[in-house]
Write a structure and sequence with these properties.
The chain is built from three helices and three strands; from the N terminus they run ααββαβ. With 188 residues, the protein is an alpha+beta fold.
Amino acid sequence: MLKRTGRRGQRGVALIEVLVAILVVSLGMLAMAGLLSTSTRFGKTSEFRSVATLLANDLADRMRANFDPNAKSGQYYVDEPATLALGIPAAVTCADPSKCSPQEQAAVDLAEWQATLFKALPNGTGYVTTRDGNYTLFDVWVIWRETDADSAAVTGVNNATNVAGKDGCPPNFSTEGSPRCMHFRVGL
């Protein structure tokens, strides 16, 4: 009598191999979906940083154009950083539209800059202080609501690392709403 080879013991092996292959492919697809989500989030953060840099340069150009050492450099100050912006600031105009004083031009520039920050960045706002008594060196902060704030609300983990007075945020700035702060030093 002939002995059978072990064919009978191998039934269903192909099915198990297919199921394992499906499992491996599924795990790979889940990993790719997570990678895509992360890259999209970091892409948006990079976009916000680029916009913040451009808007800080915009204010620096406005300050240089309105430079007047006798008028305290047009008085470019935003002294009340409390929280992220909740709305577009009120428009400011000069008393005589054909000729603005340096102080009036500074007020117009700051109002336009704050409005642009709010429109270009989520809850965007800005803060400006002078660094020296000659009014030729300024600290400029561009602040917006970090996109990770939404995930922080869901997961309970705050991924935005900025803290007021640390990591680039101005002193006395509220950390509520996961702000992201970028600090710039402007010399006139």
